[in-house]
UniProtKB/TrEMBL annotation:
Database matches in CDD domains: Cyt_C5_DNA_methylase
Catalytic activity: a 2'-deoxycytidine in DNA + S-adenosyl-L-methionine = a 5-methyl-2'-deoxycytidine in DNA + S-adenosyl-L-homocysteine + H(+)
Protein species of origin: Flavobacterium indicum (strain DSM 17447 / CIP 109464 / GPTSA100-9)
Gene3D superfamilies in alphabetical order: 3.90.120.30, Vaccinia Virus protein VP39
The name this protein goes by in its record: Cytosine-specific methyltransferase
Gene name per UniProt: hpaIIM
Keywords associated with the record: Methyltransferase, Restriction system, S-adenosyl-L-methionine, Transferase
InterPro entries associated with the record: C5-MTase (IPR050750), C5_DNA_meth_AS (IPR018117), C5_MeTfrase (IPR001525), SAM-dependent_MTases_sf (IPR029063)
Molecular function as annotated in GO: DNA (cytosine-5-)-methyltransferase activity
Gene Ontology terms describing biological process: DNA restriction-modification system; methylation
Stated family: Belongs to the class I-like SAM-binding methyltransferase superfamily. C5-methyltransferase family.
Enzyme Commission code: 2.1.1.37
């Protein structure tokens, strides 16, 4: 058969076809894109059988009158029938190391690792909007639910570094030790199980600062016990790292846990030292005045003022905050008062005509929310990073993300200690 012009995976899996063989929530698009992006490093063989199978299904749907064989499907893959490389952050050509990206979000870990010369050989994320952003920037659809065995089965062997910004969950500790079995039913258990099976040279876990005292400290103690005693990794004392110390104007503290396989003989690790670099909101502020929709209405401003006054009357400091150009932002978070804790003044506005349905009028003080692009910059994402989702999703995604420069600085220290390609 003669293949016509290239087939868009975007259309196949999201827009046109509503048949079972190409369900969006399956791992089929993930298999195909992972195969294509690993064609030069040997890992593609791990995805090849299923990639050919799913390509055959898609071609059969595209060419219903043709008899599609496995050979034809394989040739179509090699021919490049699916174009997944028209993206801002393509795979590294000659990678120095391989890593996997669990609970990947929109790819903060991946961006940091690619900047250091790494090649992602597996990624997973369950949120469909985050998957969309990830694919728009890296050309791969992440695999789905990592708690499922059919997803774990696609993780290849032989990668160097496991990265995971796993959610914080309490453990129902049945035993006295708080070991591997006592973490069942939590997402950390799935991370630990993958480490146990694949034995990567190093691991890099990120979590909220509150993990340190979560469940009276038992959660972190159990995690460290599993990593150190059950899995045998060298785990230096976890450290709280602040994004503001690594070149972004955001006061964002997160706990980092790193570890090294016994075969590396690593017995000492130093977290990166803060950079001697002063940076403020002015450094990442929009160059042009943002759309009027980002400026608050007079009624909403008054609501925030009243809300803050009520809380101050109760003796606590909860409420909105306005960040000056010469200050750094509060931590960006995806819920609650996340945006209201990072309001800014922008006196450049001249058109006060509302562009959305608001109560009252646009405030004349220039009080506005930060834009999604400013949140991206607060997390260290370059301006080439595509934001393909609506603002509400974008704020959530950047609020949930890791701070790229802090991750990259720490990963660089890890890579110095494990044997990777120079």
């Amino acid at each position: 058969m003669k293949l016509k012009e290239k087939i868009s995976l975007e259309k196949v899996f999201e827009k046109e076809y509503k048949v079972k063989l190409v369900e969006l929530e399956s791992n089929k698009e993930a298999v195909i894109t992972h195969f294509l992006h690993n064609s030069k490093n040997g890992v593609s063989q791990f995805f090849k059988k299923d990639a050919v199978k799913y390509t055959k299904e898609i071609l059969q749907y595209e060419y219903p009158k043709e008899e599609i064989s496995n050979i034809v499907a394989e040739e179509a893959l090699q021919y490049g029938i699916f174009d997944t490389f028209d993206i801002p952050f393509p795979p590294v050509e000659n990678p120095k190391f391989k890593f996997i990206d669990l609970f990947a979000g929109i790819g903060g870990f991946r961006l940091a690792m690619q900047n250091l010369g790494g090649k992602c050989v597996f990624t997973s994320e369950w949120d469909k909007d985050a998957k969309r952003t990830y694919k728009a920037n890296f050309g791969e659809r992440p695999f789905g639910d990592i708690t499922k065995e059919e997803t774990k089965a696609f993780i290849p062997d032989g990668f160097d570094l496991l990265c995971a910004g796993f959610p914080c969950q309490a453990f129902s500790i049945a035993g006295k030790r708080g070991g591997f079995e006592d973490t069942r039913g939590t997402l950390f258990f799935d991370v630990a199980e993958i480490i146990k099976r694949k034995q990567p040279k190093a691991i890099f876990l990120e979590n909220v600062k509150g993990l340190r005292n979560h469940n009276g400290g038992k959660t972190l103690a159990t995690i460290l016990n599993v990593l150190r005693n059950d899995l045998g990794y060298f785990i230096p004392e976890p450290q709280i790292i602040n994004a503001k110390d690594f070149g972004v104007p955001q006061n964002r503290e997160r706990i980092y846990i790193v570890g090294f396989h016994p075969s590396t003989n690593v017995t000492e690790f130093n977290y990166p030292k803060p950079l001697d670099k002063k940076i403020t909101f002015a450094d990442i502020k929009e160059k042009e005045v943002p759309a009027t929709k980002y400026f608050l209405s007079t009624q909403y401003v008054q609501t925030l003022v009243n809300h803050k006054a009520r809380h101050e009357g109760k003796g606590n400091g909860f409420g909105y905050a306005i960040i000056s150009d010469n200050e750094i932002a509060n931590a960006v978070v995806c819920g609650g008062m996340g945006r209201e804790r990072n309001l800014v003044l922008d006196h450049r506005i001249t058109d006060f005509t509302p562009t959305t349905h608001i109560k009252g009028t646009v405030n004349r003080e220039g009080i506005r929310k930060m834009t999604p692009r400013e949140w991206a910059r607060l997390q260290g994402f370059p301006d080439e990073f595509i934001i393909p989702v609506a603002d509400a999703s974008a704020y959530k995604q950047f609020g949930n993300s890791v701070a790229v420069p802090a991750i990259q600085a720490t990963a660089n220290e890890i890579l110095k200690l494990i044997e990777v390609k120079k």
